Predict the structure.
Amino acid sequence: MQRGRANTPLFWSVVVVIVVADVITKSLAVYSLLPQRMPHELLGAAVRLTLVYNPGAAFGLHLGAYSRWIFMALTAGALFILGRLYRSTRDGDLLRALAIALVCGGALGNLIDRIRSSAGVVDFIDVGIGDMRWPTFNVADMAVSIGAFLLAWVLWGDEHADHLGTPRDSDTARDSAPVPASSVSQTSPEI
């Protein structure tokens, strides 16, 4: 029996929505936020739209001339691991499926940018107060961050439940299923 089949519609819907939203918002940013690095206030100075290209990874991590290829390979490896994690997800474990889908969708969105252009990943959401700014990010980055947080929380919960011997929701449902009378022993328990 293949695991995670009940989660498939949620998983693929979230991945597609994240990738499409990321591609569309990045395209809009590229065509409407010119010139590059010029802030456009959205909610005052706290939330601005500023077009930048990030040839590295999160928080401006850059590994030199081969950053693009290194991060593409790392993304492919991460997607492989996430795929295996998704395939091991129990049917009905929607929070875990959602978390993995968010991370996968975000990773794919940024991977598309790396494949499409050597300039780097398009970032455009700029938040902060005055000169204290968070590194500029995009929809894919938000999905990866939220998904990673959810995934850590879910995996910690699974590990915590395993450590305490507490049944998970899907285990409880399976264990509370009626047992056929023919499989119940007819002898009384020993005291």
